[in-house]
Automatic annotation (TrEMBL):
Keywords: Hydrolase. The keyword Hydrolase applies. PANTHER family: AB HYDROLASE SUPERFAMILY PROTEIN YCLE (PTHR43798:SF31), MONOACYLGLYCEROL LIPASE (PTHR43798). InterPro entries: AB_hydrolase_1, AB_hydrolase_fold, AB_hydrolase_sf, Epox_hydrolase-like. This is Alpha/beta hydrolase. It comes from Paraconexibacter antarcticus. One of its GO terms (molecular function) is hydrolase activity. Signal peptide: none annotated. Residues 38-298 form the AB hydrolase-1 domain. Pfam families: Abhydrolase_1.
Length: 316
């Protein structure tokens, strides 16, 4: 039987740095292990950099310079809807942070959900910048014909379709949805569903205190509304900054991990990875994990990342 979940670090365990990008946008991020090989950790929705709280210290101890930002519109980064919230806009932010602000010519990356889509775009948009990527339970590129040739469904699985009603409202009815959530408590309660009753995560993966920790940044009306911008971009309700790198097979070396206790992701996600990535390690199914794998199985996630990227680490 699995043991108890490891305790999460204190909310104040890591200091937050704020840097202004050449574009003028300010991003907030955690940076631990400066001098190690740069490893960029990219959260999704409804997450912030707090998703990585359990793995930041062990990854830094292993020799990585861990960079865990809040995406634009999330957490402690700028919250506004004046700019774009699509994959390309996020990818350009992250390249500017890691390359222009922190001075790294290359990096490794990890991400799930929206973050996984962003880093796929990042690796294809900036040739040679991403040496390797670690993906889990993330959105996948649109490769309709290739998936069909592999015998994979063209339509979402019925369970996924049923669980994805939030996508429609956040994408096509975002203002009305935000207007219904009038208090910080209501906004946090809305986000808390995705850590509990919506069955994204593995059963028992989040205590009440964990959910409080994850939802606290979404008490802000501005940040919750801004976070919907990603869904508006995906449903054409908000313009794109530019065409995403989202319609081609990726040759970036990829480690794929899949938490099966996830009702919002395609059940055949592992098989889709075999189509979408030419240099693929895995996919490996991680039992007792769902949508939030670095939080639910932090030791396993850390071990997998270190093993996959070990040869990139500085020699000691």
């Amino acid at each position: 039987m699995p043991g108890p979940l490891p305790p999460a670090p204190e909310p104040t365990a890591f200091g937050t740095i704020r840097s202004r990008l050449p574009s003028g946008r300010e991003l907030a991020y955690v940076r631990e292990g400066a001098g190690g090989f740069p490893l960029l950790l990219v959260h999704g929705w409804p997450e912030t950099k707090r998703l990585w709280w359990k793995v930041i210290a062990p990854l830094a101890a292993a020799g990585f310079e861990v960079i865990a930002p809040d995406l634009r519109g999330f957490g402690e980064s700028d919250a506004d809807l004046d700019g774009f919230h699509d994959l390309a806009a996020h990818a350009r932010d992250l390249h500017a942070l890691v390359h222009d602000v922190l001075g790294h010519e290359r990096c490794a990356v990890a991400g799930g959900d929206l973050g996984g889509g962003i880093i796929q775009d990042l690796g294809l948009r900036f040739d040679g910048f991403v040496l390797r990527q670690v993906l889990f339970n993330c959105v996948m590129p649109i490769l309709t014909e290739a998936y069909a040739a592999a015998g994979l469904a063209s339509e979402p699985h019925p369970v996924v379709r049923q669980a994805a009603d939030y996508f429609v409202r956040q994408g096509r009815d975002a203002d009305a949805l935000a207007a219904e959530l009038t208090t910080g408590e209501q906004r946090r309660r809305y986000v808390a569903q995705f850590y509990g009753s919506r069955l994204w995560g593995t059963p028992g993966g989040f205590t009440r205190a964990d959910v409080d920790f994850m939802t606290e940044p979404f008490a802000s009306a501005a940040h919750l509304r801004a976070s919907f911008g990603n869904y508006e971009s995906a449903t054409d309700a908000r313009p794109l900054s530019e065409k995403p790198h989202w319609f081609a097979v990726s040759d970036v070396p990829t480690l794929a991990l899949y938490g099966p206790d996830d009702h919002v992701m395609y059940p055949d996600w592992p098989e889709r990875c075999e189509v979408a990535f030419t240099d693929l390690t895995g996919p490996f199914v991680v039992r007792r994990a769902g949508h939030f794998l670095p939080w639910e199985r932090p030791e396993l996630f850390t071990g997998a990342v270190v093993s996959y990227l070990r040869d990139l680490l500085p020699r000691r």
